Amino acid sequence: MTVCLSTNGMSVYELARAPVKLLVSTTHGVRVLERDGAGAPWRITGHVLDGKHVSAMMIVPGGGIFAAVHHGGLFHSADDGVTWEQRTDGLTIAHVYSLGYRVRPEGTVLYAGTEPVSLFRSFDNGLNWEELPAIGKVPGHEKWTFPPPPHFAHTKNFMFDPRDPDIFYATVEQGALLKTADGGVTWRELGSFYRSDDAWYKDVHRVAAHPSNPDELYMATGIGLYRSDDAGENWTRLTDPGFRIGYPDQILFPPGPDDVMLMSGSESDPTVWHTSHHAHGTVMRSRDRGASWEDASSGIVGDGRANIEALNMAVYPGGVSLFAGNTDGEVYASDDRAGNWNLIAQGLKPISKGRHFRNLQPMTG
Predict the structure, then answer these.
(1) What is the mean pLDDT of residues 273-283?
(2) Helix, strand or coil for residue 121?
(3) Least confident among 235-244, 277-286, 297-306
C-alpha cells in the first residue's frame, strides 16, 4: 500500500488498507519511507532519482508510478518505485510541473502540465505524448508571468470533475483559472474572482471540490481562499489579508463530517520570505466549510522557518492517514485527522515547489 507525497501531484489516495510505503519528493530525488504495518514506526529505507528535483508524483491504477522532474521530463516506475525509466517521447517541454489522470471507458488518459504553460496527454501510459497547446493560448495569456526568473508561468495543478471525464480545471501560476469541457482540447477562463487591486495577478494555486457536491469549489490563491457554489463561475473570498494563512496552497476534505476541511500554507508570500527567511507554515482546520478556522498543527515543531509545501491523505476502510512535508526536509503524519502530528522523517532535502526553499535558508553572518 504505497502513497506519494509531492508538491504538485496527487493529494488523495484510496487504498484497501493503511499505507506502509511513502515516496517523498524532494529537491534531490525521492526518499522512500516504510513501516511494518499500521501503527508501526516509519523508517527511511531508500533514495531514488537522486539529484533530480521532483515536483509531482502520482500512482496510476494498473499503470505504475510517475514522477515529474524540474527540467528533466518524466520518469516511470513499474515496480513500486524501485527502478525508473524516462518516458518523454513527444514531451517537447522538459520542465514538467504537474500530473493527473482520468479513467475513461476506453482507458486511462494521463496529463502533464509544464512550464512554460502547456498540456500534454498520453493514451498509452506515458510511452507517447501529444501536446494540447490551446491551454497556453487562452485570451489574456500574454499577461501570464511568474516572479522569479525566467518569469514563465506554469500549469500548476489539475482538478477533475468526477461526473464527466471531459471536464476538468487547470490552475496557471500566475495568470488564470481555466476549465475544459472536452478533455483539454479547448479552454475558457473563469476569472470573476479577480480585482484590479489584488496584490498579485490571478495567482491561482489549486482548486478542490467538496466531496458531496462537485460544483462547490474552493480555490487557494496567493492572496487567500475563495469559494464558488456554481462550478467556478462566481466566487466569494473567504479569508482576508490578516488571516493566519495568507498564502494558502493545499486543501483536503478528510472523510467524516461534510463541513470539515484542512488547509496548509504560509503566513505571507515568498517575496516576504526572501528577507524574513521565515514562512510560518502551518495547517488549519475549518468545521463550517471555510467560514471559520482553528489551528490543526499540534505536533509540527520547528522555529517557524519552514513552509508546508506538500499535504495529502490516504483513505482506507476504517481510517485515514495524513502526510505533510516542508521546506526543511521534514515529514509529518497524522492518523487522527490532524488532531496530532508525528515527525516521521527529518534531515531530507527540501520538499519544495520551485525555488521556495531558497528563500527560507537560515541567515548567516
Answers:
(1) 88
(2) strand
(3) 297-306
| Number of helices followed by number of strands (H, E) in the chain | 1, 29
Count the neighbouring beta carbons within 10 Å of the beta carbon of residue 298: 13
Give how far Cα 3 sits from Cα of 13, 273, 297, 341, Å: 7, 30, 21, 17
**Which amino acid does the sequence have at 107?**
G
Q: Which three cell numbers stand for residue 316?
A: 482506507
Residues 6 or more apart from 109 whose CB is under 8 A from it? 101, 102, 121, 122, 123, 165, 183
* Residues comprising the chain, all counted: 365
Average pLDDT over residues 290-300: 95
Scan for cell 478542490, then name that residue.
Answer: 208
For all residues of the chain together, what is the average pLDDT? 93
> Alpha-carbon distance 43 to 61, whole Å?
26
**Model confidence band, residue 363 (pLDDT cutoffs 50, 70, 90):** very low
Rounded distance between C-alpha atoms, residue 337 and residue 131, angstroms: 39
Question: What sections of 72-205 are H helices per DSSP?
Answer: none
Contact 288, 259 (CB under 8 A): yes
Please name which of 102, 238, 263, 87 lies closest in space to residue 169, comparing C-alpha atoms.
102
Tell me what the mean pLDDT of segment 303-313 comes to. Answer: 90
d(CA 263, CA 333): 15
pLDDT at 76: 98
pLDDT at residue 94 greater than cutoff 50: yes
- Flag whether pLDDT at 364 surpasses 50: no
| Sheet containing 43-48, strands listed edge to edge, beginning at the edge strand earlier in sequence | 2-5, 21-26, 29-34, 43-48
CB distance 284 to 262 below 8 Å: yes
Between strands 85-86 and 261-266, the pairing is unpaired
Helices in 142-219 by DSSP H: which ranges? none
